[in-house]
Design goal:
- The complex is a heterodimer of chains A (373) and B (159).
- In chain A, strand 2 and strand 3 form a beta hairpin.
- The N and C termini of chain A lie far apart (55 Å).
- Helices cover 47% and strands 13% of the residues of chain A.
- In chain A, the strands form three sheets. In chain A, strands 1-2-3 form a three-stranded antiparallel β-sheet. Chain A has a three-stranded antiparallel β-sheet with strand order 6-7-8. Chain A has a two-stranded antiparallel sheet with strand order 4-5.
- Chain B has 159 residues and is an alpha/beta fold.
- Chain B is built from three helices and nine strands; from the N terminus they run H-E-E-H-E-E-E-E-H-E-E-E.
- Chain B has a five-stranded mixed β-sheet, with helices on one face. A two-stranded parallel sheet of chain B has the order 6-7. Chain B has a two-stranded antiparallel sheet with strand order 8-9.
- The N and C termini of chain B lie far apart (49 Å).
- The relative contact order of chain B is 0.14.
- The chains are: A alpha+beta (373), B alpha/beta (159).
- At the A-B interface, helix 8, strand 6, strand 7 and strand 8 of A face strand 3 and helix 3 of B.
Amino acid sequence: MAEFRTEEMVLNMGPQHPSTHGVLRLEVVLDGEIVVNVVPHIGYLHRCFEKHAEAMTNYQQVIPYVDRMDYVTSMNNDLAYALAVEKLLGIQVPERVSYIRVIMAELNRIASHLIAIGTYGLDIGAFTPFLFCFRDRELILDLFEMTCGARLLYNYIWVGGLSHDLPDGFVEKARAFIKTFRPNIKELNDLLSYNKIFIDRTANIGVLPADVAINYGVTGPMLRASGVRWDLRKNDPYSLYERFDFEIPVGTNDIGVVGDSWNRYMVRVREMEQSLNIIEQALDNLPSGDVKSAIPKRIRPPVGEAYVRSESPKGELGFYVISDGSGSPFRVKARSPSFCNLSVLPEISRGAMVADLVAILGSIDIVLGEVDR
Amino acid sequence: MESSEIYEILKNEFGETILEFKRDGVVEPYIVVAPDHIRDIAYFLRDDERLQFTSLMCLSSVDYNDGTLGVVYHLHSMTLGHKIVLKVRVPKEAPHVQSVEAVWKAANWHEREAYDLMGIAFDGHPDLRRILLPYDWEGHPLRKDYKVPEFYNGMKVPY
């Protein structure tokens, strides 16, 4: 029998494709159904954040732009930026401010993980968990709405403080949310996490070894799924996180292997439980005080620079801010976790089946607004 | 390990190519090194037993608005828990810096971003293309003297 002539095929996945969670184009080189190489093309959502930041006349004006980087975790973005400018200014915020920031950051972490989990299920064909996740996320958005009026882009955490104090009834409503949401995590586990079909699609797929992850600058749940117990809230605490008692979930060999897509998913589920614990502790010990007392009237940091990082739901979010002594920032560089996490995609998807590429990409949990900034 | 000790180790190993150590007036101390030796220094920082800088947290490009561009490396050791900031400075007319992509893969996209937005050429980078802007965009927007072009591919740029 004569030999068949075979050749590689180039397939474009995206920029308009539901599984890419935004506008991302993957140039996939295929040998039959096997992925030979993946070249991500990004930049479709580039909005010149860094150039805009330099044009602002006040450090506070940058915060609405920061909101729009990773638009599902605005609180965490605000927090990271505020911490960087506060370090430049050398100001200490009141304890109440730090506690409220922790509550908001953890609520937003749960909201972000719910999107990650829900859309991940959706990517590989489980529609119902997506609706369950968004139902619960709605409760968090209600809490944010009663706090600052916005449901998505909050502009709530300011340099030196907060835009508003907590409204009346917030604490009770937050406790009610925790009470409702805890059993829902178990429901989610029964429905999706330990679902045989889901496990078959995700376990042992896209394995990322720990040393490769560190070399690529991968952080957050992705790094922890690879078995590295690394969380900036514990390892480099900020905003009084050292006072809270919580655990860092890492990947295990129970179902798949350490570093596979299922572990990346499961670390997020377990982190939601830990976030609930943190919120409970913060609500129990919430100090009193004025949340606006430390907000400077004019922000003119001394000449200098600071790189401050924090643990956003996607990973290490860092801001490198340079001040030339004037009222507007000289340079703001955002080190976004999704950017670094996405760069490892070619490494872990070579040799996978084309159908698994969607499962691998979904497990990275990218938000293109943050990749492209 | 303190940044002054890291500086001493580097100074002993590389001598002349370690240009400056600054610890006063800035929030974090930093070490200025020669742009054409950064790769060797990076290999040493990663592989030396005392230093073990396993991860590159952030790679930023800066236009200092005095005729020089800079690259800033924020390094961190996950095993030993210390940090250091490295800086290189190059003239704006010929901005060439050695790539550290071979040392930390995280530098791959960060260097492409610095090339794209600031116009710094990283020698030895395997795939130095624009990353965020279209491939046929002209100019490097994060430079302080950047002027927005009036037209892009015959289309008027709105502002």
